[in-house]
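Class, look over these structure tokens:
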Amino acid sequence: MSDRTAVLFALRDDPSLVVRAEDLGYESVWAAEGQGKTAFGKLERWAVHTDSVGLATGIVNVFGRTPATLAAAAATLDEHSDGRAILGLGVAHPGVVETFHGLPFERPLLRLHEYVELVRRYLCGDASSFEGEFYSPERTSFWDAFEPVREEIPIYNGALGPSNVRLTGQVADGWVPNLYPSDRFEEAKSWLRTGAERAGRNVSDVDVAMYVLTSVHEDPTVARRAAAEHVASYLRDVPGYYGRVAAEAGLEDDVTAVCDAPTAEAGTKEVSDAFLDRVAIVGTPAAARDSLEAIREMGVDLPVVRAPGGVDAAWIERTLETFAP
């Protein structure tokens, strides 16, 4: 079985950890983007310090930039890194799009569909016009002075719901699920397969790069506490998304308890062991490595491991060492 492994550094911007990941053999490093530093800014910095590791945006939302701006940023990163750029896109959620960007969160999947097509057009220099619901550029190519290193940069979609996963199968090179209950994964893979078949593709052509929450510590209690804090923050801060997926997997009581808790601390205490066991790898380093193999056997092509939010550099270093290919 393949030992392909990637790592998400989320909001952390530490070139020394990126270099360590490359030295340990990780296939790619992923930079998150929310309401602070840009993923592209971090990846440009990391490119200077590395030679071969893939550099992925994980995830940039399709509301925050036009397709032309995104394609230009990706092509620039690809040139500066000698062809190592990877695009992780997503529709985000109203909390980011409406509250932070001040834009209406309308028809996100249609927007994503147009967005992916246009990004590909810009990268390959297709100069024809495009008439869409959201974007209607008269020309979809860069100036002659700028020619992308690659006409095709891999595009992954961060999708959770059935329609979005099916769209991923139709138009994307890869799928990035996050905090997905393990016992629901096979059903989600069937949605991906349906989308791929609609586009005349084989589902095996779509790289499944799952974000895998990992909480590794010699003290299992400490590991579970960190993982529970992470899960609770996602359920409380991104209402209606991760909670919906978990509820559909039979974890509705857990979701309600976490979200209705009066404080974040109280919400963390409501995250059950059963919940964690279905969405995360938690435990000692030795046990954690075995659990990652189970993730691969489930049908994940590229596990993208990540440490819980808020942990220190030493914890992330331990994560890198534990799951090194």
